[in-house]
Specification:
There is one protein chain. This protein is an alpha/beta fold. It contains 15 helices and twelve strands. The strands form two sheets. It has a six-stranded mixed β-sheet with strand order 3-2-1-10-11-12. Strands 4-5-6-7-9-8 form a six-stranded mixed β-sheet, sandwiched between helices. Strand 5, helix 9 and strand 6 form a beta-alpha-beta unit. The chain is globular.
Length: 476
């Protein structure tokens, strides 16, 4: 008898019973972060930072403006966008236009006075950037296209820096951010070389970018915590979908990136330093793409290429005292992952930051985190979302929930997030919160009464084998 058969039958029966019901509407607590300045002399007061991801800015939303944008510097783009007759922020199924980008940056700007830094785990550019450029631009030359790519990324970076002029904006690129195409960023490329100064200026650091032209990776010091650093890597090179289509074919960027990460963490261990990692793609399994993974015609869909995911996890496991937290994006949803060793002990976690774009019918969002200034370790976070659909007079930003208040598992840590993952799998009330928060409160139907076990399993089962054992009862 299959030793996992009981678990499989239990999950199947529970999912089937819930399939005929409707999850109760969740009354979302509106919790705002305590951003009032600390009392004078309070050295124990936490610090705060902001996190937003997957902006996917679409400069083609008003085709009449494209040629004017192409002819202008990014510093002039605001004035051009303001001449558009399109003033409503982009709705579900669309990427971020100027009105949505502006309302997002305007919403987060008032918190700037209390934020020590801002994290952006990638994807500056709209989906299908090249196709849209060739459709709407008059000058379709490769040089003009490449110039427009760089201008768009610089425009977004400049907008963030204008709202946060005095703090680091710690950003990485995403899978859509390249000259060549989706999942096709070139190592050791003109693209990365041309963006080095842009990323360094956003981060407010003139040093730490020696590896950026080759790998899109850099290290900069934390602005408030001694001996703590941001380790930023463009981990699209590790993706199962990555293709080095336009770069030098003899290079192995995934191996080079992993070697760079290991050497960086090794050096930090020797120097008794710690790090916050920022990368685009999360670890483990793409739950949404794996909801049919228990049939003969489908298998779990890992985010990383064979070998790369295990290699990354092994590196992180060798340096558990160095890595305080990991921030990713990519899925566009509010999510997390827990990394555990072979004995099942959690040693690290990843917070998956929700997107600004409502492309996957989620609500746009960003998050404010508190952290311990002595160690750099995150403590809590508060999620703010924007109603992407509905009438213009009902679309507004609201504080959706605070992590500790909503889930009651204590501060952010590998152990506490592992406890939360177990509660999501077992407790319907906790699961209802997770499902509602996952899309920022949007009724998109991404997680249903039938497929929720796939999302619950993906939180802690990061290999295809472990995911299959959890979701399919070992049937694969």
């Amino acid at each position: 008898m299959n030793k996992h058969g009981g678990a499989r039958r239990f999950l199947a029966a529970l999912a089937l019973s819930l399939a005929c019901t409707v999850l109760p509407t969740l009354a979302l607590a509106q919790a705002a972060p305590p951003l009032d300045p600390p009392a004078t002399g309070d050295t124990q007061a936490p610090g705060f930072f902001g996190a937003l991801s997957d902006i996917h800015f679409n400069p083609f939303y008003d085709p009449a403006l494209v040629d004017r944008l192409a002819a202008a510097e990014p510093s002039a783009w605001d004035g051009i966008f303001k001449t558009s007759s399109i003033t409503e922020p982009a709705g579900p199924g669309n990427d971020t236009d100027y009105p949505l980008l502006k309302t997002t940056l305007d919403a987060i700007a008032p918190q700037a006075r209390r934020l020590d830094y801002v994290i952006l785990p990638g994807d500056f550019l709209t989906h299908d950037f090249r196709e849209n450029y060739m459709l709407y631009a008059s000058d379709k030359s490769d040089a003009a296209y490449r110039s427009f790519v760089l201008k768009t990324i610089r425009y977004v970076a400049m907008g963030l820096k204008a709202r946060f002029p005095d703090v680091p904006v710690v950003a990485t690129l995403g899978n859509n951010d390249s000259f060549c195409g989706d999942y096709q960023i070139e190592p050791s490329s003109e693209f990365l070389y041309d963006l080095t100064a842009t990323m360094a200026e956003a981060a407010g650091s003139p040093t730490g970018f020696s590896a950026y032209p080759e790998l899109g990776a850099y290290v900069i010091p934390h602005p408030r915590t001694a001996r703590h650093y941001f380790v930023v890597l463009e981990n699209t090179f590790l993706s199962a979908k990555y293709r080095n289509t336009c770069g030098l074919t003899y290079t192995n960027p995934s191996q080079a990136l992993l070697l760079w990460l290991e050497s960086t963490l090794y050096r930090m261990k020797r120097e008794n330093a710690t790090a916050t990692l920022v990368m685009h793609i999360p670890s483990g399994i793409d739950a949404y793409s794996s909801t049919r993974a228990c049939g003969f015609s489908s298998s779990p869909v890992p985010y990383f290429a064979a070998g790369s995911g295990d290699a990354l996890a092994n590196i992180l496991q060798r340096y558990p005292d160095q890595v305080r937290a990991i921030f990713t994006g990519h899925s566009h949803m509010d999510d997390f992952r827990v990394l555990s060793d072979s004995g099942g002990k959690p040693f690290a976690y990843e917070r998956v930051i929700p997107s600004v774009t409502p492309f996957f019918r989620n609500n746009p969002g960003y998050q404010i985190y508190s952290y311990e200034r002595a160690t750099g370790a995150p403590l809590d976070y508060w999620a703010r979302t924007y109603a992407a659909s509905g009438q213009s007079n009902t679309r507004a930003w609201r504080w959706e929930y605070g992590f500790q208040q909503a889930y009651n598992v204590g501060e952010l840590s590998p152990d506490n997030l592992n406890t939360l993952a177990a509660a999501i799998a077992k407790d319907p009330a906790t699961r209802a919160k997770y499902i509602a928060f996952y899309t920022g409160g949007a009724n998109s139907g991404t997680i249903t009464n039938r497929n929720w076990p796939a999302f619950a399993c993906a939180l802690t089962n990061l290999s295809a084998k472990a995911f299959s054992t959890c979701f399919c009862g070992g049937a694969q």
